[in-house]
Amino acid sequence: MPVAVVLDNLAQGVEKAELLRSYPSIKSEDVDACIEYAAELAPKNNDTSRILPLFPKEG
């Protein structure tokens, strides 16, 4: 299963337990590894050039 599928599900609010039930071929450690991978891709060293606000400004 692609990492993007796991991360997309988590981003949409799917609980880890639900992911594991829906995709019995993956393990809890696999989900954790996907999260760690995403964290590695996130900007480091106060590089805020790619950080998006959680709540876009209205109007």
Automatic annotation (TrEMBL):
Gene3D superfamilies, per this entry? Winged helix-like DNA-binding domain superfamily/Winged helix DNA-binding domain
Q: Which InterPro entries match?
A: DUF433 (IPR007367), Homeodomain-like_sf (IPR009057), WH-like_DNA-bd_sf (IPR036388)
Q: Show the SUPFAM superfamilies listed in the entry.
A: Homeodomain-like (SSF46689)
* Protein name stated in the entry: Protein containing DUF433
* Species of origin: Rhodopirellula maiorica SM1
